[in-house]
Amino acid sequence: MGQSEPAGASALSFRFLLSQVWGEPWDLKLSADEMALRRDERVRSIVRFAFEQVPWYRRAMRDRDLGPDDFRTADDLALLPVAGHADLTSDPAAFLPRNANREDLLELRTSGTTMQARSIYHDSEGMIAGWAVKLRERAVRQHIVGVPGYRSASLSLDGNPTRVRDRFRIIAPQIWKLIPEGRRYSVFEDCEKVVEGLREWRPLHLSGYGSAIGRLFRYLAETGESMPLPRLVTFSSDAMAPAERRIIEEDFGIPVLGIYSATEAFSIGFECGEGEGYHVNEDVTVVRVVDPHGRDAEPGEAGSIIVSNLVNRGTVLLNYPLGDIGSPVAGACPCGRALPRIRLLTGRDTTWIAREGALPIHQYRLFRCLQALGLDLFQTVQTDVRTFTVRIVPMPGQDRPTMESAIRTAMIDLIGPHLDISFEYPLRLEPTKSGKIMSFIRR
Q1: CA separation for the pair 138, 192 (Å, rounded)
Q2: CA atoms lying within 13 Å on the CB side of residue 336
Q3: Local confidence band at 113 (pLDDT 50, 70, 90 cut-offs)
Q4: Tens-digit pLDDT profile for residues 182-194
């Protein structure tokens, strides 16, 4: 295979692969009750494991006079305290099973919203169980692309996904054969170079960072350059601007679907293309959306996304905030899937705007305020309590003096008086070192 085998890694048994992958009961065949039974069985299993083997959760449950028998359904996970970034950063070993051999686990690094590097360890069985439910989104892609064994390409970075695929080559070579042949292009690569590579490769499926894919198709629309178009675009890691999504779907006629995943929890959810929001793979990742008081948010109400990874027995994370903002979606999806749905909202739940003489406000309020003025591709930078720079990607038909006046008025009304607001018009918004585009930056 051209690489050394990691210490402790070994091929998983074919019987296990059969039970988790080829035996995966696709969600279209499961009713809501059947899915709930599958989910709650895994809830009981991971909670008992956490109580018996994971120091942080054993202490947390004992402090609350709780035991494994108090957890029967996913709703009972709310009995646990929220395990924050600070808890994981200060004592990462407390979230690992006692006597865990880290050489048997795959270490993935993430900084998330805190910009503090954290290690998340995944065991092989949990990785496969998490990947197995990706057959659901894979089935959606296959239906749209319509060609077996299609070529794929991604606009991403050579980071954690590559490490996961490399481990799959070793522990589950049978699964590796199921993954479409693909090529990767860096999110930092110039659009001209990416187009040149895609002309040669001619993929039918293009995936990657939402901001990078959006920038690529805006480049095609503005320059008139052409390339063989994929039949499907999927994005993850960061948001795709509404204007750029419209360009892909309406101007180029290509379906666009979002994928929701994280280093802490693989395969959280996916868009099916028929209904609003992301279907949540609740049998591997339970998602709660909570308001600032920790109460479950109502459909349409924004809140913080809290996840519980039901299958990972490396770094065990139950009731863990990802730093994303979402809202529950009510009702059944037209596609017929029995999975719950959430909407993902732009912004991070840990980013607040400082105000002079007043309490801070969440940056999502500013994002929605500016979006209501017709802005699509923009970024706000706060350098001190009064000083802001609004970066706006130029678009045809912009009346800059009128737009700037409206933005100043709206920001003063929202944040407070005596603001120093300047404007920049870059041709593109620069990604962070992680390749993501942030809508608000506080320096």
Answers
A1: 29
A2: 6
A3: very low
A4: 899 998 888 999 9
